[in-house]
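Review form for a predicted model. The reviewer records the input and the model, then writes brief findings.
Reviewer: anonymous (R2)
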Amino acid sequence: MQLLAVGLNHTTAPVSLREQLALAPEQLGEAVQAARGWFSRFNTHGEDEAALLSTCNRTEMYAASGAPDPLDASARFLADYHRLNFSELRPHLYMLPQHDAVRHAFRVASGLDSMVLGEAQILGQMKDAVRVADQAGGLGTYLHQLFQRSFAVAKEVRSTTEIGAHSVSMAAAAVRLSERIFDSVSEQNVLFIGAGEMIELCATHFAAQNPKSITIANRTLERGELLANRFSGRAIRLADLPELLPQFDIVISSTASTLPLIGKGLVERAIKARRHRPMFMVDLAVPRDIEPEVGKLNDVFLYTVDDLADVVRSGVESRQAAVAQAEAIIDTRVQSFMHWVGDRAVVPVIRDLHESSEVLRLAELERAKKLLAKGEDIDAVLEALSKGLTAKFLHGPQQALHRAQGDERARLASLLPQLFRGRR
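Model under review:
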């Protein structure tokens, strides 16, 4: 059985291609069953295992297969299942065997392979995917062990390093600052003004915190809707802000406007309508989208791009140290898992040895019982029993040594003493 991971993510494929491979939660079980059926074409043993993980940033298949070339089979399954041209899809896929697949699974679960470095949402998504795969019959000994260890590694990384504790981008810094104002982002309504690259990155960071709602305000409603749909949010027009602004607890703005979009009067009215519940605002635009005077209002916490830059500078060094610690933990746990895989590979050999030894033991024991029944001396019978067992156990190795030639005989000659040397 070969372990593998095949898929694509935000670093290997554009969103236009990721969309074509994306699987909704209700589709995962059917896809897992289809993957196992696909593998059965190449492996008649029918013991193949499969699980699929699909998020807005990645679609991956993890598998354990006895197929002759499981990596190629997996890649072709993804193309066939999604009705894509294999030659066009292949350049965007990573195809990771054994050790590399295990390390990838551990890094994904720990948030080291995410667009938002160290984010915790991916761990929950992976657990959901594993549960569905298990229900669909996709998990066996290998993948069950792989994912349980992935979850354990993720927990260890998060509890023993500060991978998620320091902001290293403007977007991450905005999340961190918001957590100083609100106990939990998950209970807040978030508004993003604009639909450019910075807003997209900020929305990705805040979405990882599972806010109560996400809204995109943009001059062009269609473009706002495209971005909002990625995060299960809604889109509104900028013209609707005066009426709707009081609904939002967190406001992040980054547009190319040459004049402020949000003035002091507008925010004053919003705070009054909110009955002075606090509002957290971040202005990432240059020139500014929010009038500086807004920051002087009570119950408003306004931060500019310069404020966030200070948070970013303080977090870079700490995050780099945390990543190095996390990678070291993962490397150690990968070695441990591969040792377990190696042990699994010799289980059939050990089982066969036990079975053949048991046949020899029972034959000698039956012979000894018959001698005792005839009244033979017990010491002589025990002596014969021990010699008979020894002779039968050594017969196979001795024959192999006699038949071997050259280098093979030399290897056996050095190996056999290790196998039959007793404890002293």
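Findings: Strands lie at 2-9, 49-54, 58-65, 94-97, 189-193, 213-218, 234-237, 250-253, 279-283, 300-304.
Further findings: The mean pLDDT is 88.
Recommendation: see findings above.
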